[in-house]
Amino acid sequence: MAEQVRAIRTRLTILSAAAKIFEEHGYQAATISQILREAGVTKGALYFHFQSKEDLAQEVLAGQDQRIMVPPRRSKVQEVVDVVMLHAHRLQTDPMVRAGVRLSMDQLAQELDRSGPFLRWAEVGLELLQQAQAQGELLPHVVPAETANVIVGSFAGIQSMSQAICEYRDLVSRVSALMRHVLPSVVVPSVLASLDFSESRGATVYAEALKVAEAQEVLDAAS
């Protein structure tokens, strides 16, 4: 058991180091030697857990996925908003998420498959928007797949702009503005009036989701 715990910690240490190096230097310029120095581990330890720099990068890319889940909402459009605002909050506060986004936007990383995060976020949005449509929350002309792609692509541009201008300090206000501009063309007025896309929404959802995750860990440990 102790060896398993040490292995898990070593793996997380290496991933955190890789995230820092990828965020600072980009995929192409980052080297295994830099990651080893940052992590303080041997080459053997790194290659025990990861096969290559590409393997490390894919794990970092996956770090921006919705592992901290938004609790289900009665309004599925609110759930879409919460997913987006939570991701904006995590971009401001979680180095692994920042590194994953940096990699997904790194056009110099031509040999790296960067499509995964975009496709996964679009799938999350599509599923929620289809549920919202079934509940009558969307305007008649809306095509959920199209709207999901618009939201994901717009978020990518907004976060890139915020990162370039002020290192994400204004990201939540920009994303809140994005939601206020996009949703009126998608959502029926009665639902739109009930939505909360305030700038503090991401932090609120994060705190709620963290409590749910911690409670689930306690239940899993007890079972």
Q: Care to describe what's here?
A:
The chain is an all-alpha fold and 223 residues long. It folds into two domains: 2-60, Arc Repressor Mutant, subunit A (Orthogonal Bundle); 76-222, Tetracycline Repressor, domain 2, CATH 1.10.357. Helix content is 73%, strand content 0%. The chain contains eleven helices and no strands. α1 crosses α4, α1 (2-29) crosses α6 (95-104) and α5 runs antiparallel to α7. The chain is globular, with a radius of gyration of 19 Å. 35% of the residues are buried. The model has no long low-confidence stretch (mean pLDDT 89).
Multimer state: single chain
Number of strands: 0
Tell me the span between the first and last alpha carbons. 18 Å
Mean of residue pLDDT values = 89
Could you tell me the strand content as a percent range? under 5%
* Helix and strand run: HHHHHHHHHHH
CATH fold-type name of the largest domain: Tetracycline Repressor, domain 2
Number of domains as seen in the coordinates? 2
The low-confidence runs, each spanning 5 or more residues with pLDDT under 50, are: none
Q: Shape, please?
A: globular
Radius of gyration: 19 Å
* CATH class bucket of the largest domain: Mainly Alpha
| Total helical elements | 11
Chain-wise SSE layout:
Layout: H1 2-29, H2 32-39, H3 43-49, H4 53-62, H5 76-93, H6 95-104, H7 115-134, H8 144-166, H9 171-182, H10 189-192, H11 201-222
Helix pairs in contact: 1-2, 1-4, 1-6, 4-6, 5-6, 5-7, 5-9, 5-11, 7-8, 8-9
Brief overview:
With 223 residues, the protein is an all-alpha fold. It has helices at residues 2-29, 32-39, 43-49, 53-62, 76-93, 95-104, 115-134, 144-166, 171-182, 189-192, 201-222.
